[in-house]
Design a protein that fits this description.
Radius of gyration: 18 Å
InterPro entries: Nucleoporin_S59-like
Structural class: mainly alpha
Strand content: under 5%
Order of helices and strands: HHHHHH
Number of strands: 0
């Protein structure tokens, strides 16, 4: 009798989405695991999978909209996610800052330019803290 190793039914009180998340994590497909963790509301596990296994490869592949989609899908649950500001919150801040820097009004007002400079400085300080926090859990290619 052949047995399928892909969990598709409810086991031990966990739904099939959680079972599929565990299956995909075990088989090395972090992106699919992340989608299933999001689907079953395991926000902390989804967040750590996003930061340690998915976000860097999406970023290096130029899939900015996918990063923003995944990060914003967790944003409503950030109070349930430990170290949100050092993880997915960094990406939301980055894209918001990037958008504000593209606005044309920055050259017309010195105050606005100073505000944007301060925002960049604050962002890079947070980014440095994020790297220090996650460094040991990130793949080597994500640390550069």
């Amino acid at each position: 009798m052949e047995c399928s190793r892909k969990p598709t039914t409810v086991y031990c009180g966990f739904g099939s989405s959680f079972g599929l998340a565990v299956y995909h994590a075990y088989s090395g497909n972090s992106f699919k695991a992340l989608e299933h963790y999001l689907g079953c509301g395991f926000w902390q596990k989804a967040h750590s999978t996003f930061i340690t296994s998915v976000a860097h490869s999406l970023f290096m592949s130029g899939k900015q909209s996918e990063i923003l989609r995944l990060a914003t899908s967790m944003e409503d649950h950030k109070s349930e996610i430990e170290n949100w500001d050092l993880g997915a919150g960094i990406f939301i801040t980055f894209y918001s800052l990037k958008s504000s820097l593209k606005e044309d009004d920055s050259m017309t007002e010195l105050v606005s330019l100073q505000d944007k400079n301060d925002a960049c400085r604050k962002f890079f300080s947070r980014l440095k803290g994020s790297l220090a926090f996650w460094e040991g859990r990130l793949p080597i290619d994500a640390r550069c």
